[in-house]
Amino acid sequence: MPHIALLDQTDWSGWRQAARQLVLAGIPPNEVTWSVGGDSDALPEATGAFHLPRSLVGLAAHAFQAREVERFGLLYSLVWRAHGGERIMEDVTDPDLTLARRLALAVRADAHRMRTHVRFLPVSEDGRSRYLGWYAPAHYVLPANAQLIAQRFPDLTWSIVTPDGAAHWDGTTLRFGAGVRSIEDDATLQVWWDQFGADLLHDAVEGSSVPPAEDVDEAPRPPDRPAVGPVVLPSAASPALLETAREAAGCERCPLHGPATQTVFGEGPAGATVMFVGEQPGDQEDVIGRPFVGPAGQMMDRALEEAGIDRRIVYVTNAVKHFKFVPRGKRRIHQTPEVSEIEACRFWLDLEREQVKPKLIVLMGGSAARTATGRAVTISRERGRPITLPDGQMAFVTVHPSFLLRIPDEDGKKREYAAFVRDLRAVRELMAAL
To answer: What does the angle CA 313 – CA 315 – CA 318 come to, to the nearest 5 degrees?
Structure first.
């Protein structure tokens, strides 16, 4: 049974080369073991070539970065089957393909969150500034993201440190080295860099074999653009909120739990000043298990950035915790939840409000507004100003970011997006006054 040892968790070129040799040598997936580090067994010489669907290669390139120990064998199994003639990418019910797609979605969401959430601290280095960032990604997305940031900001000198490793860019060369387990705040980051930064840079090595950086529409935040307010690293939810999330994972209060993949609970720091409430998770959120990571979430992140609100210091959730959809071919089409479903899920939102204790709730869309107010709300009438909920809580009504995605003409989309950003700037002013 051949054993393949990759150089590191993101040794994409090593995996591709091994997979090619294994396929050409006729070695099936159940006869191969994979690991990171150590020595590989010698493989028989194999010559020739074969072709794979481009969609499968793209899927594997993303899923390869997932923090999942079985991913190497899973992806080789898909390659083996595709080489054998199976039209693997057309079978949406195939369990291996489903798992690979979930891993790829999780990686894409985590890569996006890293690009939008990492903040940079200027530190002195030989009389000039190096921009230093720290982030704890859920998956192995640092190398590909570092390639992207180096492409977008080639004239800046920066380092991004994570628990898995660090990336350093000096304007010409991208190098990778050791990381650090955790950083609590800006002061800790500064002290740590003063003590270990020089050694970290000295030990870094050039190059990375990860998949090429994906082509994305949004650029990461420029390191020379200061964050609004202090840099706040993600903080943990309270024990009570974590326990509530665990209870919600088994929720069967309405029929929506049946077809949905999982409960998508809210997330954010304990004691957040502001809670953003949307309608329900979408397709990607249902698969990944986190709120606002799909197209609407990316639109929201972009608008928050322009409005000067750091998403890491707010709590984000939905009025309904399960994805309601109707299947249409290979797609799952969003459906608006019924009043009865909104009312059934109010239980969880009430617990979130009680345990987070926000001073302001931002209600995005009609379903969220109905949940909090107990009545049908006309968004255009209530939008853009603070209102008082029946329980005395201050709230602010605006559109749901998915509304912006549905506008067909570009002029209208730009106009409504600008209005959404204005609403969020008003939210920011309220935050400053609370």
So the answer is: 155
Which residues, other chains included, contact 258 with Cβ-Cβ below 8 Å and sequence gap of 6+? none
Going by the DSSP 8-state scheme, the letter that residue 335 receives in this structure is -
Q: What are the Cα distances from residue 300, in Å, to 41, 219, 263, 305, 352? A: 49, 15, 21, 8, 21
Cβ atoms of 321 and 251 closer than 8 Å: yes
79 pLDDT higher than 70: yes
The answer to whether residues 324 and 332 touch, using CB atoms and an 8 Å cutoff, is: no
- Give the chain's end-to-end CA distance (angstroms, integer): 64
CB 101, CB 261: distance < 8 Å: no
Token readout for 15 is 């995996």
Amino acid letter, residue 117: H
pLDDT of residue 184: 64
Q: In what order do the strands lie in the sheet with 386-388?
A: 315-318, 274-278, 360-364, 394-398, 386-388
pTM: 0.55
214 contacts 144 by C-beta, under 8 angstroms: yes
Average pLDDT over residues 325-343: 88
Token pair, residue 161, equals 């440190």
Q: Which residue has the tokens 């329980």?
A: 391
DSSP letter at 93 equals: T
Tokens of 233: 């690293």
Q: Check residue 104 and give its pLDDT.
A: 87
Please tell me the predicted confidence (pLDDT) of residue 234.
Answer: 35
